[in-house]
Amino acid sequence: MKFPMTLVGLAALACCSAQAQSPTPPQPAQQKLERVEVTGSKIKRTDRETPSVVQVITAEQIRKSGFATVEELLRSSSAVDVSGSVGDGVGSGFVSGVNAVSMRGMGAQGTLVLINGRRLAPVGAVDINFGRGNLVSTNTIPKDAIERIEILKDGASAIYGSDAMAGVINYVLKKEYTGGELAASAGANSQGDGRKRSASGSFGFGNLATQRFNVFGGLEISQRDPVTYREASRIGRQSDRDAWLIANSTAGTPRLPDFSYGSIGSFWGNYYSLPATTPSSTTGPNDPKLYLGTLAGCPDERTVGKGVPQKQPGQQDSSPLGQCRYNLDDNTEFMAKQDRFSGSVRGNFAVNEDTTAFVDLMYSRTKTVNVLAPQSLATLVGANNTRVSTWALPNGKVLGQNAIILAPDHPDNPMRGTAKPQTVQLAYRFEDLDQREISDLSATRLSAGVEGVYAGWDYDAAVVYSKMGNKGIRTQRLLSSRLNELIAKGGPYRFGKANDAAAIDWLTDDATNTGDSTVTAADVRASREWFEMAGGRAAVAVGLEARHESLSAVPDDAFRSGDYVGLVANGTSGSRNVMGGFGELRLPVLKSLEVQAALRAEHYSDFGNSTTGKLGYKWTVLPGQLMMRGTAATGYRAPSISQISRDGFFVSFHSYGTERIYDPMRCNWNASDNSKSTSKSTQPNQWRDCNLLNYTSGVPSAQQPGSLATAVTPNPAVKPEKSRSATLGLVLSPTDYLDVSLDAWYFRRNNEIRVQRGFDIMTSYIANPAANEQFLIRDSNPGTWLTDAQGAPIPNSGPILALLRQYGNFNYTVTSGVDYEANLRLPAHPLGKFKFKLEGSYTARYDQQILSGGAVERIDGTTTSGVPKTKASVRIDWSRNDTSAWLRLNHTDPLWSNTSSAQCRYNPTALQAYPSAQGWCTATRQTTLDLGLSYTGFKNVVLAGSLLNVTNEYISGGAATVPAQFGHWDSGNRSDADLGRRFNVSLSYRWD
After folding, report:
1. Looking at the DSSP assignment, which residues form a beta bridge with residue 603?
2. Span 22-55, pLDDT tens digits
3. Count of C-beta atoms within a 10 Å radius of residue 469
4. Which region ranges are annotated with the description Disordered (predicted)?
5. Would the pTM of this model clear 0.90, i.e. be above it?
6. C-alpha distances in angstroms, 636 versus 112, 159, 339, 609, 719?
7. Are 616 and 595 in contact (CB under 8 A)?
8. Residue 670 above 90 pLDDT?
9. Is the Cβ–Cβ distance between 391 and 559 less than 8 Å?
10. C-alpha closest to that of 741 among 642, 637, 818
11. Which element (helix H / strand E) includes 72?
12. Cα-based angle 827, 832, 836 (whole degrees, multiple of 5)
């Protein structure tokens, strides 16, 4: 493999020049300990302040944060956006149990996560959401092994390579430890829901200085209980806004506090006569002309007219007496059960005074079990269209499942044997199936190496093997082939009857997807002082790295053949080799001015080369009082294996919610007056054909088509994403008691790797059908085709069932803003010591342009970007003798929804006028108060407790909802913050 000559030359020049200098005398041991490597630079230094902005969170700060997990602490950082991050509360749709961090709204794929400056393997699964070619899960790192976390708020591809575009999160683990510690903690919210328990133990023995070795390690176990939506409805203090939402709920809107209208699909199924056409009104499920009855056995508490009222306040229609309902809130989980285990051990051996060998091993396992609402087939259809669900195969073929339509002689037809037997449609839920989504993640990391000083060089060389395995299981999923057989002629499974395990096993199977991701790497890096300059001695760092990456995700045979009702298969297989090297210079141009320059070149075996650079400066204007700093950098992100591998296959569902998209063959849509007519046939337009991609404004739910299935193909021609970033700031210390920092930042990401949007495909098709029809899959059933004036079918004119999409490079995202921090330490006082800290971030701009020449979307402060204008916190710390306490006030600005907020503000209807007048047309701002207390008066014992979100404000519900949507809970991934007011208590005992 040809290595980039520019980098070889730089490394050779640095080495040869260093050898020409007089050898640097060995430094005393104390000075060695003071020289450290700070994230964002590979040059060891005694001064931690670099041109880049680095936030350091120590192990003590982690303990005093009051958060139950490190992941929750990271989400509280002002530079971290919750929307682009991935939480492990529930499944993400492609993989569960993963925690991934996003900075600056650039998504988890734009933030590099490291352990001791080295990479981890990503999750062994495929996530086709925007840009998520790979996800590195942070909940695999043992908390007790962490010495500190360094958050680099700057682009750093010139130092670390791919992915470090928006920042770097580096977990620095302990390198030496003696003694032992036992710790335990517990927590829950104020209702006792979401209980968490953890226990850990760590040990260490040996002294490197006197015994030439040190060995330490630890174990940590934690458990989290599940939370249902019914339990979640009790979370949070009800505001006037929330009370209005509840009182004005509309039909078909579940998950409002203390009320769920429920589903007509239940185990004791409701049966209907089969209409001639698909119902186009919300009264369809309750139309007395269609409803015939309910299978025997529905409990009174679920029966309309007994435990369920016929009509709820604010609803326009009533339910037929005797209808059986299923309560989604009581049986669907808001937060999944999770069990985590992690362990680590490290051994150090002093080869000689200047050389230390080390080996460390980490293993973790995270099992997440999410209980799902049992599958149902409850959508009413017409005789001309019996399909209730469609899903695509990777080859573009569209499969579908028909409704449960029972012939008059079917053994489970309740009209069989009556005076007037007839075909019925059964709205049914398979409640006797135990349907769960289980994600079993295992992470293994082994590293071994040597570090020390040789001929004036501080060096560090290591080999690393990192593996992330994932086994995803969806239990007891319906097999379409067996279900069709059951509907046609009956079988061992009986609708609404007691079914044994054999009958359930005949009808279902566990859908399984097994994945593995590995990174095997070897690297060497070294730094040293080089030559004298006006401000002191220059320093240089060089390094080389070689690594092999592999990824596989393999769904089972039934998954790939599409036999699971409504499930789509995603998989991939591939590997690549990466060679890279870097050089870095620290130039003390003046005593007060330091300049940093870095260059990195890498070669990927699958897409080619990339070269990135960085310049930075640190200017001490007034020693000890005023420092200015700034950086300018280029960065990149390599396409993931799944995005460019020829062996990848992905399927998803797609919707778009800002503009109406229609099928011009089957609907002539005039957006100016909303008129609908057809010239292609004598058939009336169907709402589905005039409302593709799920545009919802003003359209009743029964008339919405739902998302379209899409088959997504990898693209070997995809190029890397490129970025440019800059920071400019100052650090002011006017007194010994006050430090203030202010840093402006700018990031631009070009060539963004995205999946084509269905909206763009349909827009191109509407403009030129002949040139773009190959991207559409239509129903091949002639019974669904249009007919001409003579009644003859028009070939290939069926409804659009799916779209064919591909990965590609799109245009850009630009974001800019200001980070600020102030630390005030008051002089000691008889009342105790006081410290104050203000930390925050203001996002001035977040713009996107998806297609070159298209509209620029300005989406800062909207739910589209998930990036608030302001995110900040104020913390007060107090300590006296053995007692310490803290108080923290957190604030996040409200978010606008581009569609729903506008509808709320400008819709003249009375339903929207009231929330608009009250200023409720944004997602609620988040302002919460936390407090904590700790006591160390007992020997070697630390007692601590915290109460978070003291006033019990809504977090998830308030942040994700505007009144036009009438939904109460965010559908995104859950984290502990979504539990409302919650407490944590901990006890630790340490000995030397």
Report:
1. 579, 609
2. 344 444 444 444 567 788 888 877 667 789 999 9
3. 19
4. 303-322
5. no
6. 11, 12, 36, 11, 10
7. yes
8. no
9. no
10. 818
11. helix 70-75
12. 60
Strands (E), 393-507: 398-402, 404-406, 424-429, 436-454, 457-478
What element of type H or E holds 244? helix 240-247
Joined together, the tokens standing for residue 427 give 């709205």
- Give, rounded to a whole angstrom, the gap between the first and last alpha carbons of the chain: 51
* Domain coordinates in residue numbering, the chain: 5-226+336-373+436-644
- By DSSP bridging, strand 213-224 and strand 227-228 are unpaired
Give yes or no for residue 587 having a pLDDT over 80.
yes
Query: How many other β-carbons are positioned within 10 Å of the β-carbon of residue 201?
Result: 17
Indicate the range of 306-320, 819-833, 952-966 predicted with least confidence.
952-966
Q: Report the amino acid identity of residue 539.
A: A
**Cβ atoms 306, 322 nearer than 8 A:** no
Here the tokens at position 360 are: 């460390």
Q: What is the DSSP string of 909-946?
A: SHHHHHHHHTT-SSBPPEEEEEEEEEE--STTEEEEEE
CA trace torsion 638, 644, 649, 655 (10° rounding) = 60
The closest of 139, 555, 146 to 367, measured between CA atoms, is: 139
Residue range 294-308, pLDDT digits in tens: 999 999 999 988 988
Q: Name beta bridge partners: 113.
A: 169
Selection from 88, 66, 89 nearest residue 76 by Cα: 66
Contact assessment for residue 846 and residue 867, using Cβ atoms and an 8 Å cutoff: yes
For 236: left if phi > 0, alpha if psi spans -120 to 50, otherwise beta; the answer is left
Q: Can you tell me the distance from the alpha carbon of 876 to that of 832, in angstroms, rounded to the nearest whole number?
A: 12
Quote the tokens at residue 406.
Answer: 């029972």
Identity (one letter) of the amino acid at 612?
Answer: T
Going by C-beta distance under 8 Å and a sequence separation of 6 or more, which residues neighbour residue 566? Answer: 375, 389, 391, 401
CA distances from 847 to 308, 638, 749, 810, 811 (A): 48, 22, 11, 14, 11
Separation between Cα atoms, residue 868 and residue 870, nearest integer Å: 5
List, as one string, the DSSP characters of 269-285.
-EEEE--SS---STTGG
Residue 874 has what pLDDT?
97
State the CATH architecture for 5-226+336-373+436-644: Beta Barrel (2.40)
d(C-alpha 66, C-alpha 63), whole Å: 7
pLDDT tens digit sequence for 504-547:
999 999 999 999 999 999 999 999 999 999 999 999 999 999 99
- Give the closest residue to 649 by CA, choosing from 439, 469, 802, 806: 806
With 0-12 / 13-18 / 19 or more C-beta atoms within 10 angstroms meaning exposed / middle / buried, residue 528 is buried
Query: Using alpha carbons only, what angle is made at residue 870 by residues 865 and 875, rounded to the nearest 5 degrees?
Result: 130
Collect all residues with Cβ–Cβ distance below 8 Å to 939 and sequence separation of at least 6: none
What are the start-end ranges of the E strands in 479-625? 508-533, 536-555, 572-590, 593-604, 608-622
* Residues 102-111 pLDDT 10s: 899 888 888 9
Query: At residue 144, what are phi and psi to the nearest 5 degrees?
Result: -70, -15
Query: Which residue's entry shows tokens 């080390």?
Result: 358
How far is C-alpha 677 from the geometric centre of its chain's CA atoms?
A: 43
Contacts of 307 (CB under 8 A, 6+ apart): 299, 300, 301
765 within 8 A of 776, measured Cβ to Cβ:
yes
On the 0-12 / 13-18 / 19+ scale of CB atoms within 10 A, 557 is: exposed
Q: How far apart are CA 320 and CA 330, in angstroms?
A: 22
Q: State the Cα–Cα distance between residues 183 and 172, nearest whole angstrom.
A: 21
Residue 969 has which token pair?
A: 């809970």
Q: What is the mean pLDDT of the chain?
A: 84
For the segment 342-353, what is each residue's pLDDT rounded down to a tens digit? 999 999 999 999
8 Å CB contact between 271 and 427: yes
Length of the chain counted residue by residue: 992
